[in-house]
Structure formats: C-alpha cells, structure tokens
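pasting for ref
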Amino acid sequence: MQALGIGVVAVERDPTAPNLRLAKALGLPVVVADATDRFVLRKLGLGRATAMAAVASDDRDNIAVSVAALAVAPELRVVMRAGDHEAIAETRSLFRIGLVHDLNSLSAAYTTAAMCGLRPYGVMAHGRQLLVERAAGDVVPWPQMDRCDHQPTAASLGR
C-alpha cells in the first residue's frame, strides 16, 4: 500500500509480537495499542481512512476490531481475516459488515479450478459469488457452497 502512495498505520496490541520488529524494519508505522478501543481508532484518524484491514491470527479479535472500527466510521471499507465458518457465521449474525469470504473458500476455488484444468490466474469475490480468472484473461463463475451440508459426527466434534 505504501508503494502505491497510500498511507498505512499498523496497530499491534502486543509489544512483543513476533512480526512487530519486521514491520518496523520495513518502515511501516506501528502503534502499540488496542485496536478494539474506539478512542485509539479515533485518535489514529480512522474516520479519514479509505479502508481498514483486521488481519490478526485470531478471528474473534478481527471481529472485535471490525465492530469497533465500524462504530467509529460506519461507512468504512473493512477487510477482515476470518479463517473458519464459525467466525464467518458469527460475523454475519452480529451485524452487516458486508460481504464475507473466507480464505479457505478462495483457496479451494483456485485449487479445484487448477485440478479441473482451467489454469487459474486468480480468484476474486464478487458479491457472494466467487469468480476464477483464467490465464487467458476471461473470468468464470465458480460453484461454491456457503457451508457443507453434512452432519458432524461425534468423532469430528472431538467427543
């Protein structure tokens, strides 16, 4: 983003986080603070931001940061990392963040398109539909399910 001339600020709650030194070494401005705190987000000027990305390793932290960000700037574009269906379902039930696609479904679409011989260049989300861009430059809709319909067994639930 910085290379495109777009200002970026990273917010990290843990001053001992492993990637904090790397971010600083790369010249990324880093603020050690709690991004779920609305005061912090206002002080950082989130209301003037073009977008915000909540990409921590914990899905629930990302949900909390997104909720706080939208409370500060309701029209803000939010990109949120949500790795499992439980977090996505919870996010959709809490409020309308926008469209939610998990990384697993994007990766699965790319992988299955490659296995089907489509030679994918990339996968993108358009609304709730996934689209596979092929190396030839055309884009094809990719079938997906929001959630599989099998019933979990006691073994799959760890019982």
